[in-house]
Design a protein that fits this description.
33% of the residues lie in helices and 18% in strands. It has 321 residues and is of the alpha/beta class. Strands 3-2-1-4-5-6-11 form a seven-stranded parallel β-sheet, with helices on both faces. Strand 2, helix 2 and strand 3 form a beta-alpha-beta unit. The longest helix has 21 residues.
């Protein structure tokens, strides 16, 4: 039987690297696109074929000897030019699909968007109107994420995208180098005696371990009846959300300091690029759809429950201690 092939772009990124490794562990032949030769060795150690290049320069596809890909997973982004980069990503998708179809393979395109597509919630823990975002919720992304959200919307529109596509909307992910949650460790480590968070303690902070997130990608890609998953969006989130108070208390205990909350000033966007923004972008995201369809479930401890092991990994990987 032919070994299935997958191309993961941004394979040295936080989600992209976890996804590439998960496909490899599941028995796929994995090609990982990265921009720099110096990171290729780490992919090769995990039996992933490195392709050096970028969505802006598709010459990297020739390094794979024009293989027909069963699946393309797009995990790249650009903070400097989001719209321009995503336009190139779309061109890359179209090119990979055309090449694979010419070889008799109908590929599946999986695009990594995110749950911030839904926007922040006004409700907090304890509010009677609090309910999770689902895949049917309206999209209301922050301005900086509009291009990403629009590409995801276009991919699910059969009039604009004639091929098979899935849009993934993970919550914030943690584990190992901890991505955005690494800032929480740094903030707590830099606090002298008191951890001061500018946030509502009842704010909802929903997250998922990056390995659980990556497993969801593999399960969707390998679904035996593709018609049940294509041209749909899927949320990926932990089984339960945590609050800013719960996370703050866990951090304070771990670092042996006190915890203090101060009222946030201004909208969530005011804190978007700060550690406080993690709590001010209050969000509960339901993932019943993927759980019911695939039997997917989170196996790793929540951030609060496993905080000590996640802190251990973060400090080892970042050289903070």
């Amino acid at each position: 039987m032919r070994q299935k092939t997958v191309l993961v772009t941004g394979a040295n990124g936080y989600i992209g690297n976890a996804v590439a490794k998960a496909f490899s562990h599941a028995g796929w032949k994995v090609y990982g696109q990265v921009r720099r030769q110096e990171v290729a060795g780490e992919l090769a150690q995990h039996e992933i074929f490195p392709l050096i290049g970028s969505p802006e320069d598709l010459s990297f596809l020739a390094q794979a000897n024009n293989v027909a890909f069963d699946v393309l997973v797009a995990c790249t982004e650009s903070a400097q030019d989001p719209a321009g980069h995503l336009a190139k990503v779309r061109t890359m998708m179209d090119t990979v699909v055309a090449q694979s179809e010419a070889a008799g393979v109908r590929p599946l395109v999986m695009f990594s968007s995110g749950c911030k597509d839904y926007g922040a919630m006004s409700e907090k823990e304890g509010d009677t109107g609090l309910k999770p975002h689902t895949e049917e919720s309206p999209l209301n992304p922050p301005a900086v994420l509009i291009p990403r959200c629009e590409l995801g919307t276009n991919l699910l529109d059969k009039r604009k995208t004639p091929y098979d596509a899935i849009v993934l909307r993970p919550t914030i992910v943690y584990g190992y180098s901890s991505s955005y949650y690494g800032a929480l460790f740094d903030f707590a480590a830099g606090s002298k005696e008191v951890l001061r968070l500018e946030a509502d303690p009842a704010a909802v902070m929903h997250s998922c371990h990056v390995d659980d997130c990556a497993e969801a990608y593999v399960l969707l890609a390998g679904h035996p009846d593709r018609s049940q998953v294509v041209n749909q969006a899927f949320n990926i989130s932990g089984e339960h959300y945590e609050t800013a108070r719960e996370i703050g208390e866990a951090l304070a205990r771990s670092y042996g300091i006190e915890l203090e909350f101060t009222a946030p000033e201004g909208p969530a966007e005011h804190y978007f690029n700060s550690v406080h923004g993690l709590a001010n972008f209050s969000q509960w995201v339901g993932s019943d759809k993927i759980r019911n369809l695939l039997g997917w479930k989170t196996r790793r401890a929540s951030f609060v429950q496993g905080l000590e092991q996640y802190r251990l990994a973060y400090e080892a990987l970042s050289g903070k201690k």
